[in-house]
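TL;DR need structure tokens for one chain.
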Amino acid sequence: MAGFGPRAYGRVSMRSGARTPEELETLFEDAFVVRDRMALVALFEDAAVLGAGRLEAQGGEAIASLAGELWERELTYLADPHRVVQAGSSALVLAAHGINVVHRGGDGTWRYLISLLTLESDSKENR
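>> reply
TL;DR here they are.
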């Protein structure tokens, strides 16, 4: 099917990984939009944590499962990083719909350590 599989962004694809924290955000959005569990999990460190509202998952299998739950609820993630603060091989990404701690691995690609997403339904529930 056209439109699925690894997509190129300049010279970066989902398979080659992110060269910057901002690229990681874009790849995360793309994996979420096309509902690609494998691509999504590849963007996280092995023991990483994904939080979405009151839900939390740690590790690849749990993150894939949580993503599936979010997709069943028709929720998605749109990358909109407002600020990136980088210190060496770590960075804090403040986005419109999340706060993320990312790390550059020995292979030079950036991956999530902690990703806390704010969902539209959370805002309404917490009022």
